């Protein structure tokens, strides 16, 4: 991305995405395949960039626990096995500072988030909250409302946003009628969004007007 300061600084957008993944998810363990999927980069890029990040002392090899399903229906069982993977180097003195730095150089403007979501349906409301506003008190990071929302397009847009930001985006999506009802009764989910730091990117419902009534 043109606006990705970290990618431009490192000379590698793939390295920037992978670095964000580990810095923002320091308790997680990922296999090469999972890294490629979450960061939306090639497996070749993963192998190359992990060497640089490991050399910097930010990650280390770990044993990840992977769940494998066997059988179908009532006969379906879930087994766990250990597989080779990678995780953040807990003793690295650089991770705390990197966390602060990476939060301050977001790879996309918040308006870009709205742009990516406009094509998923007839959007009426897009609100950033939670971790997208550097707050951990909200149950969700993104509140969406509209009609004719295409779930496949929504999931594709979210995967792209998550890959660029390096963190999972918790979201809630509602039809227009339902979000109007929730706003009118000021239910718990709405309170979790609007009582804490948030940013409205799109509002065709006059949200604050509804909340005041």
The spatial strand order of the largest sheet comes to 6-5-4-7
E-strand count: 7
Whole-number mean pLDDT: 90
Structural class: alpha+beta
The portion of residues assigned to helices is 40-55%
Give the CA-CA distance, first to last residue: 42 Å
DSSP summary: helix tally: 10
Shape: globular
Write the H/E string, N to C.
Answer: HHEHHEEHHEEHEHHEH
Poorly predicted ranges = none
Beta-sheet strand percentage? Answer: 15-25%
Radius of gyration: 19 Å
Q: For the report, how would you describe the main beta sheet?
A: 4 strands, mixed
Structure in a nutshell:
The protein is of the alpha+beta class and 213 residues long. The protein has helices at 5-10, 13-24, 32-39, 43-55, 95-104, 110-117, 151-165, 176-185, 188-194, 207-212, and strands at residues 29-30, 59-70, 77-88, 122-128, 142-147, 171-174, 199-203. The longest helix is centred in the last third of the chain and has 15 residues, at 151-165.
